[in-house]
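To whoever is on call:

I kicked off a structure prediction for a single chain this morning and the downstream step that reads the tokens threw a length-mismatch warning. I double-checked the sequence; it's 180 residues and nothing unusual in it as far as I can see. Pasting both halves so you can look.
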Amino acid sequence: MITQINDFVFCPRSIYFHDIYKCTTDEEFYHQTPQKIGQYSHKAIDENKYSSRQDVITGLTVYSRKYNLVGRIDILDMRENLLIERKYSVTAIYDGFKYQLYAQALALGEMGYEVKRMQIHSAKDNRNYEIAMPDQEEIQRFESVIAAMNSFSMTQPFTQNPKKCEHCIYNPLCDVYSPA
């Protein structure tokens, strides 16, 4: 899944734990406030109520045969060939955010759509962040992340990042996490 790219860059183990939680029917068990706010901010996209303009596509399912990735875009403004990924609150532009957009843009390209520009939109403060179209070096970094995702094993050696682990909703399940 394209959305898992950002999760994987944050922590490769998070996808495994997310899938464990997904098996429960009680979202209250595994969705904390940030996830709930994120879901709410996507509501207009998910319900296809974001725009009535005919040249704005929202919630389109995309697939990349080359990278074997599937996902949904937030917004494609066909008039401007602009792909927009909405986040509730953006405090920094992380590689995972960019790689998620790259995957969407590459999949759209395979499907015959043209993307010339990309943005990340922060709903909390209504700010847009331009993301450069990837050059060959960026594509190689993106491809190395996809290869790492495809070959990842929970038995691989893992070094925790205490700052990330401290705020991770999955740390109660993680055998590597040890609070200070």
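Update from on-call: the warning came from a stale cache, not from the record. Cleared it. Sanity check on the structure: Residues 42 and 86 are 7 Å apart (CA to CA).
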